[in-house]
Write a structure and sequence with these properties.
By secondary structure, the protein is mainly alpha-helical. The chain has 4 helices and no strands. 30% of the residues are buried.
Length: 142
């Protein structure tokens, strides 16, 4: 019989994998817009770097979430259902997701400064509030 904790973890991993895939797409969309812009500056390079970091982190998180959700299924092979492998996947999924969120918000905060000072202040303020909320939620969970 599959325990309730395993079912809950499988659902959690599936949800986080879906969210990671969505946010990864958002990061790639921002990245595509910036790469084809005709502006070259240190801020542009930093903003592109933030979105690249976010996209890669969300890809890693989505893959780890898939491995975790499959590994929790009752019929999973022993190679995938290995406890140490699943715990490593869980840690990697969580770390990559958190780093991806931080990088995505950092890119959003930096991107406003590419347009104007007012837009920069706005995106930085809103992004900082979002970052504080994410960090508060992560501290509350752990």
């Amino acid at each position: 019989m599959h325990s309730e904790a395993q079912q809950a973890m499988s659902v959690f991993a599936t949800q986080l994998g879906s969210i990671s895939a969505f946010f990864g797409g958002v990061a790639v969309a921002f990245l595509g817009l910036l790469i084809f812009a005709n502006t070259r500056s240190r801020l542009m390079e930093t903003t592109i770097g933030a979105f690249v970091t976010a996209a890669v982190c969300f890809i890693v998180s989505a893959l780890a979430a898939t491995i975790l959700s499959v590994g929790m299924l009752p019929g999973a092979s022993r190679d995938i259902a290995n406890r140490a492998y699943l715990e490593t996947s869980l840690g990697l999924m969580n770390a990559a997701f958190l780093l991806g969120i931080i990088a995505l918000l950092g890119g959003i905060m930096a991107s406003g400064w590419l347009r104007s000072r007012l837009t920069g202040y706005t995106t930085t303020a809103v992004g900082a509030v979002g970052l504080l909320a994410v960090l508060w939620l992560c501290i509350r969970v752990t």
